[in-house]
Amino acid sequence: MMFDNQALERQDLLLLRLEEPIGQSSEFQAKLAPCPNPNCNCGEAVLVIQDGNFDDKKRDLKGIFLLDLEVKQEKLRIKDVDAGFHFNPGYMQFALRNEQMFDAVKAQIRPDDWKVLRQSYYALKAKLIEEVPLEYIDADFGAESLADPSIMFLYHEVFPQARIWNVELDGKVYDLYDMYCVDDKCLCTNMNLNLVIDGKQGYTIFYDYSKSEAKTADTRTLSIEEASRVMAAIFKKYPSFNAMLHEANNRMRLIYRKFRQKNETKLFKKPTPAPQGPSGLGVPFRN
User: Fold this and answer.
1) Distance linking the first and last C-alpha atoms of the chain
2) What is the residue extent of each domain of the chain?
3) What is the pLDDT of residues 219-255, one digit of tens each?
4) Which DSSP letter does residue 84 get?
5) Distances from the Cα of 211 to the Cαs of 50, 53, 215, 242, in angstroms?
């Protein structure tokens, strides 16, 4: 396996090992730069590879390699750099080395490497989603939500690449998808947690994150005991679980408020009257 996400102290970096050196090095440090659109589900990223210790502030082309990735489609391309770099004295050397890196990675990359790249991509994308300022986020909640703002929405409907809460118990993998009341005039702390077990069965847990109270929608299919064990494991793995749900709910309500205000303005804006000529036919009078 070429890519290792456990070998370096920085968790956002990957260690890249090549079978044959490029220049003097066969080991490099790399970092994924995911598509910066928080609402996007494209899976595209730039893989930035550097000689030596990774420098986030590096802007020149010396000792750097740039590759385009599609982590979901498992596709790899040479990155097109800005045209301004073409006049850089080191551009030709960069282009040659970048092509060598592309050929080496393309020849050696394996399914396990793509798995590591996807893990890194999803982790970085989830972090980006939580950090992006709300003024840069828009979402379409649909016309029905304007008539009934109590409709609940999955966090993943707005942010398809957001984090998924997950734990493993007794050989089963439990994934939780958070679903919120987005009514910006509401102060409730009730929500739904959609529970998926081993990627198959779907269940609903009614949850109040201000009281840590959980109820199952149907105890015949998911017992309260099993739901309680799952929630206990979630609290252990994610100590700030309730606080993070509260923050996510606030974000959803603020994003919905932008959507509501923008669309209510469109709905209730009075149409501009047509100019009236002497005949009253709605056309401007001309001599």
Assistant:
1) 82
2) 3-128, 137-268
3) 778 888 889 999 999 999 999 999 999 999 999 999 9
4) G
5) 48, 46, 12, 9
All residues at 6 or more sequence positions from 36 whose CB lies less than 8 Å from its CB, including other chains: 128, 132
Q: Which residues contact 136 (CB under 8 A, 6 or more apart)?
A: 38
- The answer to whether 215 touches 194, Cβ cutoff 8 Å, is no
Strand-pairing partners, residue 27, are: 17
Mean predicted lDDT score pLDDT of the chain: 87
Residues 6+ apart with CB under 8 A from 271: none
With CA atoms as reference, report the closest residue to 46 among 24, 62, 59, 31: 31
Query: What's the helix, strand, coil split of the chain in %, to 5?
Result: 35, 25, 40
- Beta pairing class for 152-154 and 165-169: unpaired
Name which of 73, 65, 55, 69 is nearest 18 in CA terms.
65
Measure the CA angle with vertex 248, ends 243 and 253; round to 5°: 125
Is the pTM above the cut of 0.85? Answer: no
The DSSP-derived string for 110-151 is -HHHHHHHHHHHHHHHHHHHHHS-GGG------HHHHH-TT-
In angstroms, rounded to a whole number, what is the distance separating the alpha carbons of residues 44 and 78?
13
Task: Say if CB 2 and CB 108 are below 8 A apart.
Answer: yes
The token pair at 82 is: 């800005």
